[in-house]
Each structure stands twice: as C-alpha cells, then as structure tokens.
Amino acid sequence: MRPRLSQPRRSTPSRVLPAGERALIAAIRQRVARPKGSLRIGIGDDAAVLRVPAADDLIVTTDFSLEQVHFRRDWHIPEVIGHRCLARGLSDVAAMGARPLAAFLSLSLPAELDTPGTGKSWPERSWIDRFFDGFLALADRYKVPLAGGDTAQSPEFDQRGRKHAGLIAADIVLLGSVRRGHALLRSRARAGDVIYVTGELGGASAELLAAGRDPDRFTAITRSQKNHPHLYPEPRIDVGLKLVSGKKAHAGIDLSDGLSTDLLHVCEESGLAAELDAAAIPIHPLAEQAERDGWVPSALGLALHGGEDYELLFTAPKWSRIPRKIAGVNIHPIGQMQTHRRRRADVVLRERDGHVSALDAGGWEHFS
Amino acid sequence: MRPRLSQPRRSTPSRVLPAGERALIAAIRQRVARPKGSLRIGIGDDAAVLRVPAADDLIVTTDFSLEQVHFRRDWHIPEVIGHRCLARGLSDVAAMGARPLAAFLSLSLPAELDTPGTGKSWPERSWIDRFFDGFLALADRYKVPLAGGDTAQSPEFDQRGRKHAGLIAADIVLLGSVRRGHALLRSRARAGDVIYVTGELGGASAELLAAGRDPDRFTAITRSQKNHPHLYPEPRIDVGLKLVSGKKAHAGIDLSDGLSTDLLHVCEESGLAAELDAAAIPIHPLAEQAERDGWVPSALGLALHGGEDYELLFTAPKWSRIPRKIAGVNIHPIGQMQTHRRRRADVVLRERDGHVSALDAGGWEHFS
Q1: Do A152 and B20 touch (CB under 8 A)?
Q2: B92-103: string of b/e by CB count within 10 Å (b at 16+)?
Q3: Would the CB atoms of B59 and A44 count as touching at under 8 Å?
Q4: What ipTM describes this predicted complex?
Q5: Comparing C-alpha atoms, which of B288, B219, B225, B301 is closest to residue B260?
C-alpha cells in the first residue's frame, strides 16, 4: 500500500542479509553489550541517551566510509572495512585529546553482499558479521560502545533507471569527552611552536600502492593485523589523552588528508605559517620499500602527501618537555610554526641542502 | 602520487560543484552562524566541541537520506530534500522530549548535480545552495546550529567498473538535551496507558502517491510550504518538550515507519500489547482525498501503515489530563496499552462494528 520511491527490483534476493531491517538491527544489537557507564540507553529507541561527565566538554565528529571511494570490496576484507570505519572516527577523537564515549553507525547495504565479480558468497560467514568483527574488536579495545545509528538498503538504480550493483556506505559518528576548555584545536598553534608528529608517515599510502601493484600479496597480508598502517590504522587515543593531561600541546590535528594538507589546515585556522625540516620527517619502512621498488620517485613524497596515516600532528612551545615516546609511540619534532612572511607560502619545506621551497598541499582532496 | 581507489573518471567536470572539497566546506561554513551558546567549536576542526547543560542527559540520533531510497531528484526539489533530511533527525529529538542542541551532516555528492534526464543545470542556483536553503530554514526555526559533518564525492562506478550516475547520500546526526532521567522512551509504556497521536495520519504517504499519479501537479505544489506532510514534515519538538515538562507521558516514539510498525516497537520494548480503536484514528484530509480518488482502497490503511508522517505517538496514564491541543497541535486518544494475552497479536484493531482483528506491522521496512 505504501508508495515506494525505488524502481522495481530485478535482482535476486539476498543470500546473506537477514530477512528485514528489524532483523538486521536485532542482530547488531545482540552483539553489542548492554548500556552502562555514561551510556544510559543504546540501540532500540528513537535516540540514544548519554550522560556526559559534568566537568567535561563533549566532542563530536562524523566520517564517511564509501565503497569505491574509501575502500574496495575486492581489496579490503570486511574486517578491515569495519576496523577502518571506526578508526577514522577514533582518530578525530584522539586529535582533540578526548576520551571516546560512544559510537554511532549509519550503514547502507546492498541486497547482495557476495564477493564482487565471482558470483560467490564469502565462504566463511556473512559480510555483515565479519564487518562487525573488525569494528567491534577495535571498539572493545578502546571501550567505546556502539550506541545507535541507522540502516538502509543501498540504491541499485540511478536516476535514469540504469541498474548497477548496490554500494556499501557507512557514516561513523564518534562522541568523546575532554576536560572543559582543554580540547586540542587546530586554531591554537602559536608562532615559535615546534611541530611534532607521532609514528612514521607514508606507510598507509605505500601499503595501498601494494594493493594495486600486487593484489595477491596484498590479499594474503590482510589476514595479519601486525604493522598494516593502511589496513589497520591505530588511533592515537592514548597520545591525545597524555597531551591534554600534561597540558603540553597547543594545537592538534590527525593526519588523514596528508601532512602537507593537514598542516595547512593548522596554519589557516591559527593564522600562521610553518616550516618543515625534510630530514626530520619520519618515514615509514613501507614507504622506503616503495621507493626501493621503484613504485614512487621518493618515499618522502608519500610521507608528505600520502594521507590516511592517522598519526597525530601537534604543536607545543619549545620549552615544553616533549618526550621521545608518549604512550609507547615515537614522537618526532619536524618543524616550526612561524608568523606569515610576505611572498612566502604558508607551508615551506627546508631540504637537506638548506634549500627552502613552497610545499603545496598535495594530499587527498575529494572533488579535486 | 597518492594511490586512488576509484576508477578513472570519464565524466565531464562538474558545473555546479565548487572546485574542491575545501571550497565546498568553506561555502557551507560561510552560511552557518559562528558558534555560540552550548556550541563552543563548530565547523573547521577535527571535531566540534559542545557543552551539554550539567543537569541534562544528552540524546543522539542518526538518519540516512539516500537518493532513490528516501527521495528522488526528479520529484523532490533541493529545498525539500534539505528540509526532510533535517526533519528526520529533529523528529527523533522530539520523540525523546528533548531540545535540539546541534546538527551534523555527512553529505556525499555526485560530480554532476544537474536536473536528471534533462541535461540542464537547475536554472536558478546550484543544487547545494538550494539544499541548504531548505535545511537551514528549518534549522533556524528550531535554533539548531549545523556544527559539523563530513563531505565526499559519490562513487560513479560499481565493483564491475560499470558507470552510473552518482547518487546523493546524506546522513543527519542530531544532538539534543533533556532533563536527566526524563527522556521519553519506547520502553516505559504501562498496561492501561492511553495511546495518543499528534496531528492527522496518512497525509505524507497520500502526498507521495500524488507524485507518482500526477507528477506535474506534484511539482507545482512543491513550491508552497503550506500543509505538505510529505514535502515539509513539521517535527513536533514543542509537543515533546511540553510532554516532558508536564511529566504527563510514560512512553514516546515518532511515526516514521507507520503507526502499525511504530506501535509494535513500543509494545516490544515495553513488553506489552496494544489495542487501537479504528474510529478514533485521525485521518489526514489528503488520505481521504486519495480514497475518494480511488488511489487506495481505504484512507485508514494509509493512516495505519503509510509512514513518514513524523507525528508523535505517546502513552499516558488514564488519569493524566492530556489536553486536546498541545503547542497548537491536535492530540487524539486512539487506543490503549494492554498486558499480553495468549493467542492474541501484539497489536489489534477494534473496528467500528466491534470486530477485533490482528493488525500486522505493514509499515515501511527496508530489506523486506
């Protein structure tokens, strides 16, 4: 009786999806612990109910994970897609120096979720189960409950009625809390601040390059969770918490778009310029391997522009005693915030030979 | 240099989209007021920062608006899509009896946003501008700031590399606050409670039927914002606030899936059954018109199963003095919550002739 928007379906019914949306929600709800702590009411009502600690600010971030844009089903196993989806949100929480409170997931799924191109279902278990294996393993590690969200069936016809395979779309929402007024902001860098990054850079894009160059090897290595900066990025929650509790940092951002782009964000929001020291930028071994293999002209390029490393960049005054490791993660000073100079770019790179040149924001940008 | 996931683009560059994602975000940011009140930091950082009133619980809800699933670009003008996107979230806030605090929007847009099928751009202004006209007009009315979100370019190839037109996907996140412990929950109905609904039902689905039956007339009426339950649903925020402040209601839900389905949600979460009085169900004039026009066998069917009316259903004890109007909106008693009886359905309908029959949940369900 209800009028429907979509064209009639010509596809065969799903093998892996539960019979209905309510069944899907019930299946998710079953895997999620009962609300406790700051989460009062979770999945099952019109909205979730949370109690934010009274002395804290609430921080909120949302991030899309779209098939064919942020992941490919023939490259990324479901566990990886689930992990990365949540890690994107957690990394933003980390960049604010906040503690994660709760996650919300809006998930749109096609009617058919078999292995694309093969016509076969995933052999072991359904795609959804494995997606939540990856998602909830990371959620458990950071004690962040899945508190709600939305589900829908992905469209399979475009406006001209042309049929195409439905694509997965996920939007992750993360809530976090941080002591009032203490969130690490992009806008709080000061001239003279030293610029630091966590970990090593360029590894995520080097690993993704491998997927295009050697898909079989890439598929094989997705089974291990060790040292896969692209497949299993580690949100730097503990580093962010230490930076805030020690009151050491002025400004912070996570490296999602790439160092050159994200540092430009800090410059713009703080009204400053920045100079990077090329020799000081920590390069991930996978990026160095990509240079040795001749896949890229320079590993430094991947570290500067590669993106999706999900490491943190922060600035702190020179007199701050920033240790070499925070929460077990290497911390590297890589440059300095400066006041603007006429006819000089916002971000410049000082090369090993002392030559200084403008560093264009070369990170990933949609709509570019 | 950065490896890219998507297939090379063969489409022509966009006419209406700004040059890049940063330009798009800047354009949105320009239309949004500077943070004030409980919103401390809005668009422009890794996350937004909010201060939730100390005596309040926080409520959070997310809702997808997907092209070809929830709207069609040849039926719905951009202002309508923007309005409905936000109204979905606000209606959930209303159902909890909460006051909206902030909205977050994740928005995925195709490279081309011209009028589908015509090859022409929208004549007046760009699709995005008009979407935000609708979105922000409703946001202003309820004083809810757009505090952040995400943007992406919609995929245009499926897994087999088949090109299709990119589709719009929006995910709206609403935060609200309500006095601690006072949120209206689906699970708090009690046996003997009277069931009430706001407004009249079946109008939204009747109006959507008109789009399929008489697209030209439908297009013409989209220009007016008066009495369009499908195009411009009104979230019942003020009713929800009054119900909570007066402590009159036990349980609440918004009618998004349809009365029969949403009442079943209340029954399931409260562990109860319900009986509806057919003669008492308020039927929207557009639903009655649809019956007279022979589009549907009965207007009551639309009111029971039509969905997307975004009215509120709530339960209250018999001795509560529920007025006939709350915040200017008609309130109708339509039935009663009951304890379960063996061999009787969760929700039953008492017809005008006294006959009682099981009422199947016939509302909209994805994956059905």
Answers
A1: no
A2: bbbbbbbbbbbb
A3: no
A4: 0.90
A5: B301
